[in-house]
Specification:
Four Helix Bundle (Hemerythrin (Met), subunit A); single chain; binds fe (ii) ion; mainly alpha; 0% strand; 81% helix; 4 helices
Length: 139
């Protein structure tokens, strides 16, 4: 356990950086939707969001496995569900154009922010508890 102490700080910072990057990518697509950009551009931006999320979720899950996070499995299911929805949006976009992205706003604004604030926060708290347990504060 002692070898874990302090180990998570860089990883927590990386997750936080990725969350900020993700919000930027998601906002880029929302802006393009608002501006009525062509479907090809929307598809490109959605592809970037999906790719970023795939990498981000992979990092989170690797860290969860390394840390022995007991909620890895249900958390992974949430990630898979999100990616499944976004891939569905991508398919609908190619079939019906921008209307295919009607639920994108809710998915990103509601789902992702809630996921970060509630679900990911549980993992961060778990890591911080591990560090505290390994290095209890001096009396
Ligand atoms: Fe997550």
């Amino acid at each position: 356990m002692a070898e874990r102490a302090g180990l998570w700080q860089p990883e927590l910072a990386r997750i936080e950086d990725q969350h900020a990057g993700l919000l930027r990518e998601m906002d880029n697509l929302l802006d393009a939707l608002r501006l009525g950009r062509p479907a090809g551009e929307l598809a490109h931006l959605l592809g970037r969001v999906i790719q970023y999320l795939e990498e981000h979720f992979r990092l989170e899950e690797v860290l969860m496995a390394r840390a022995g996070f007991p909620e890895l499995h249900p958390h992974r299911l949430l990630h898979q569900s999100c990616l499944g929805q976004l891939r569905g949006e991508r398919d609908r976009l190619s079939l019906s154009g921008p209307r295919g992205l009607d639920s994108y706003r809710e998915l990103t604004q509601v789902w992702f922010r809630d996921h970060m604030e509630r679900q990911d926060h549980r993992f961060e708290s778990f890591l911080r508890r591990q560090e505290r347990d390994a290095h209890p504060a001096a009396p």
